[in-house]
Write a structure and sequence with these properties.
The chain is built from eight helices and 16 strands. It has 295 residues and is an alpha+beta fold. The structure holds 4'-deoxy-4'-aminopyridoxal-5'-phosphate.
Length: 295
């Protein structure tokens, strides 16, 4: 993720990654109350563009607010710092990780010391390029009555780690997690879609992280006149699907081959998901994307 030349941003200063330090008494380290984002930049025909910077930083500020973390940065400031970060590190196609973490304090109330850290590195497609074999996780997604599932909170990712580790230990590539009612929620780090008889289905908001890629892909599907329905569904319904895919900033649009050993009916290349994967890739790195979304 970094080497001796990597520059990071920490609390108003540009530092060498190896010189950026934290406090072992940091509240976030002990209790998981911090918030973060995962953003990508792409080398487009019009230079380096941070994809949906506004949406990502709005979500970061929303997550902070939900967790009672006072942040003194605006979306515009964070966006321009991100461009500076990329420039300083000479990065074009990059993954950007903003992290907001709290300083030394052992109480269970968010402390006033709010640290903002930004770093970036080159990262290939998370989840890889091969079609994924999923297992229905024995772990549920965090209950919306226990925490703010719609916020991107550090501590929530212990659930993702458990689910991914379980799936990998059983020989699968990734997990699919259910909500408390047994409906499909999402993956450990991506939203889930499946398609059947020409219609695309995805879980509604409520038990999931409202993915920025999810809404981008729903928009692309509309442009292609693909029908998208947001509804609750069980893993059994998914097993009868023609195809399925994950969406996420890191994963982009990642095709799925099977769930619990049951293969989807269509060849990935023939699915609407595969068309959307191509269109997504094209959009993020093309000129068209300017009208599509810039801050
Ligand atoms: N769900 C979870 C749990 C995630 O961690 C992510 C990745 N941020 C997503 C969905 C996809 O969100 P996005 O498209 O905004 O990256």
């Amino acid at each position: 993720y970094y080497n001796e030349n990597t520059t990071v941003f920490l609390n108003g200063k540009w530092l060498k990654a190896s010189e950026a330090k934290t406090d072992l008494y940091a509240q976030t380290l002990h209790y998981g109350n911090g918030v973060f984002e995962g953003i990508r930049s792409y080398d487009t025909e019009d230079g380096v563009q941070v994809f949906k910077a506004k949406e990502h930083y709005e979500r970061l500020l929303y997550s902070a607010q939900k967790m009672h973390i006072n942040m003194n940065y605006t979306v515009e400031e964070l966006t321009s710092l991100t461009y500076e970060l990329l420039e300083k590190n000479n990065l074009k196609d990059a993954y950007i990780r903003p992290l907001v973490y709290l300083g030394a304090n052992m109480s269970l109330q968010p402390t006033e010391e709010v640290n903002v850290f930004l770093c970036a590195w080159e990262w290939g497609k998370y989840l890889g390029n091969d079609l994924l074999n999923l297992m229905t996780s024995s772990y549920q997604r965090p209950n919306p009555k226990s925490c703010h599932v719609e916020a991107k909170v550090v501590g929530h990712y212990t659930n993702s780690i458990l689910a991914t580790t379980e799936a990998k230990s059983k020989g699968f590539d990734e997990a699919l997690l259910l909500d408390a009612k047994g409906n499909v929620a999402e993956g450990p780090g991506a939203n889930f879609f499946y398609e059947k008889d020409g219609v695309i289905y995805t879980s509604p908001l409520g038990n999931i992280l409202p993915g920025i890629t999810r809404s981008t892909v729903i928009g692309l599907a509309k442009e292609l006149n693909f029908k998208v329905v947001e509804k609750y569904f069980t893993p059994e319904e998914v097993k009868g699907a023609d195809g399925a895919f994950f969406t996420g900033t890191a994963a982009e649009v990642a095709g799925i081959a099977s769930l619990d050993g049951v293969n989807f009916k269509m060849k990935w290349e023939d699915t609407m998901g595969s068309e959307l994967a191509r269109m997504y890739k094209h959009r993020v790195s093309s000129r068209e994307y300017k009208s599509f979304d810039l801050v």
